[in-house]
Design a protein that fits this description.
Main location: membrane
Largest sheet: 6 strands, antiparallel
CATH topology of the largest domain: Rieske Iron-sulfur Protein
Membrane topology: Multi-pass membrane protein
CATH class of the largest domain: Mainly Beta
CATH superfamily of the largest domain: Rieske [2Fe-2S] iron-sulphur domain
Structural class: alpha+beta
Radius of gyration: 33 Å
Distance between the termini: 69 Å
Order of helices and strands: HHHEHHHEHHEEHEHEEEEEEE
Bound molecules: FE2/S2 (inorganic) cluster
CATH architecture of the largest domain: 3-layer Sandwich
Helix content: 25-40%
Keywords: 2Fe-2S, Cell membrane, Disulfide bond, Electron transport, Iron, Iron-sulfur, Membrane, Metal-binding, Oxidoreductase, Respiratory chain, Transmembrane, Transmembrane helix, Transport
Oligomer: single chain
GO molecular function: 2 iron, 2 sulfur cluster binding; metal ion binding; monooxygenase activity; oxidoreductase activity, acting on paired donors, with incorporation or reduction of molecular oxygen
Subcellular location: Cell membrane
Length: about 375
C-alpha cells in the first residue's frame, strides 16, 4: 500500500478522539502492518482459586524482597563490623558480617526479579504478533496509537485491580531501594574531618606513631604471630618486599599483630633499587630524605581507586597496578606515567634504627594514601 493510500485511510482527529482503546490498538496495529495472531486472556474467568493462588505467589516473592531488603538495612547498620581476631569473643558474628550483607541484598534483588518474572508469566497475555517495520518519524496517529498500546498492555496485565501485588511490589522495591541507598550513602556518612589527628582517620595510617614509639617495617611471612623485621642487607638489589607496621609494645599482642596486617592502608612496598638505577633517582621536593640509601618505601595503595599496586618491574623500575593498568615510576617519586592514576604514590620516610639495625618509619606518610576524597588538597 502506498503512503498516499495510507494517509487516505487515516481517521480525523475527531474520529480518533471518539475511538476506544481497543479500536486504537487495532488501528495502530493495522497502520504499522501488525497482525495480532494470538492475544488470549490468561484468566478469562475472573476470581478463580487458581488466579488468587497465582496472585499470592507473586506477592510472596515481593514480600520476601521487602523483608530481605529491610534485613539488609538492619544488618548494615547494626551488625558488628569492627574486626575481631579469631581467638576473641565475637569473632563468629564479625565473620558473618559480609556474608549476611551479601545474602540479604542478593535475596532482595533476586526476589524482585522472581516476582516480576512470575507476574509476567502468569498475568500478562502472551501476545503473538507480526509487525512490519517502516522508516521515518512518528506522526500524531502513531503516537496516539502507541500510547493506546501501552495503556492497553497495562490494562490487560490487570495490574490495576491487583492491589495485593501492587502493594507487595512497592514494598519490595522500596525496601530494596532503601537498602541500596543506605549501601551507597553509608560510606559517605563518615566525616573525614573528624579526628584528623587520629591514626584511624582518612589522613593517617597505621604507620603513625602516637606516643613516640618507633614503628618498624615488618615482613609479611604468612604467619600473623611471626615478627620478622627488615635490615638493609636483607634485600637484594632490584628486590621488592611488602612490609607492615610493627611496634615493640605489640610483640605479644596477637590481636594488634593481626590488625596491623589487615588494615587496608598499611601495606607498603619496600624497594631496593639497583645502584645504577639509584643514581638516576629524581626526588620530590620536601621528600629528599625519605629514602634510606637505595631503599625506597611507597604505599601499596593505588592513588586511582585504591587497589594494591603489587607488581614491581625491576627492569624498568615501574610499579604496576593490575586493576586499571596504572604505572608509576619508582625512580621519580612514584609519579604516574601511564593509566588513569593522576597522583603519585605516597612515600614513607624510612631510616635505620641505630641500636637494632632494623628499618623503621621516621613518621607517617605526609599525605593521605589511596584515592582522592573531597577534602583532600594534595
Ligand atoms: S586502582 Fe590502580 S589503576 Fe585503578
Amino acid at each position: 500500500m502506498s503512503s498516499s493510500d495510507q494517509e487516505h485511510k487515516l481517521p480525523s482527529e475527531a474520529e480518533l478522539a471518539e475511538m476506544s482503546r481497543e479500536d486504537l490498538v487495532k488501528l495502530g496495529g493495522k497502520l504499522d502492518g501488525v497482525e495480532i495472531v494470538e492475544y488470549p486472556d490468561p484468566w478469562p474467568v475472573k476470581g478463580t482459586r487458581a488466579e488468587k493462588r497465582a496472585e499470592r505467589l507473586v506477592a510472596f516473592w515481593f514480600l520476601l524482597a521487602a523483608l530481605a531488603g529491610l534485613a539488609f538495612v538492619v544488618a548494615f547498620v547494626a551488625w558488628p563490623s569492627e574486626y575481631v581476631a579469631p581467638d576473641q569473643p565475637g569473632h563468629f558474628w564479625y565473620s558473618l558480617y559480609t556474608p549476611v550483607l551479601g545474602a540479604t541484598l542478593g535475596l532482595s534483588i533476586a526476589s524482585i526479579g522472581v516476582g516480576a518474572l512470575l507476574y509476567t508469566k502468569k498475568f500478562i497475555p502472551h501476545e503473538v504478533s507480526v509487525q512490519q517495520r517502516h522508516d521515518g518519524g512518528s506522526d500524531p496517529v502513531d503516537q496516539a496509537t502507541f500510547v493506546a498500546h501501552l495503556a492497553d498492555a497495562g490494562v490487560r496485565s490487570t495490574i490495576g485491580r491487583r492491589s495485593l501485588i501492587k502493594r507487595s511490589a512497592g514494598l519490595g522495591a522500596g525496601a530494596m531501594g532503601l537498602g541500596l541507598g543506605v549501601f551507597a550513602l553509608g560510606g559517605l556518612v563518615r566525616d573525614p574531618w573528624a579526628q584528623t589527628d587520629s591514626k584511624d582517620s582518612l589522613w593517617h595510617t597505621g604507620w603513625m606513631s602516637t606516643d613516640g614509639e618507633r614503628v618498624f617495617l615488618r615482613r609479611a611471612t604468612g604467619d600473623p604471630e611471626a615478627v620478622v623485621l627488615v635490615k638493609p642487607e636483607d634485600l637484594d638489589a632490584g628486590a621488592m618486599e611488602t612490609v607492615f607496621p610493627f611496634r615493640e609494645s605489640e610483640r605479644d599482642n596477637h590481636e594488634a599483630l593481626s590488625a596491623a596486617l589487615k588494615r587496608s592502608d598499611n601495606p607498603v612496598m619496600l624497594i631496593r633499587l639497583r645502584p645504577e638505577d639509584a643514581a638516576r633517582v629524581v626526588k620530590h621536593e620536601g621528600q629528599e630524605d625519605f629514602n634510606y640509601g637505595d631503599y625506597y618505601a611507597y604505599t601499596k595503595i593505588c592513588s586511582h581507586l585504591g587497589c594494591p599496586t603489587s607488581l614491581y618491574e625491576q627492569r624498568t623500575n615501574r610499579i604496576l597496578c593490575p586493576c586499571h593498568q596504572s604505572q608509576f615510576d619508582a625512580l621519580t617519586y612514584a609519579k604516574p606515567i601511564f593509566g588513569p592514576a593522576t597522583r603519585k604514590l605516597a612515600q614513607l620516610p624510612i631510616a635505620v634504627d641505630e641500636e637494632t639495625g632494623y628499618l623503621y618509619a621516621k613518621r607517617d606518610f605526609i599525605e593521605p594514601v589511596g584515592p582522592a576524597f573531597w577534602e583532600r588538597k594534595s
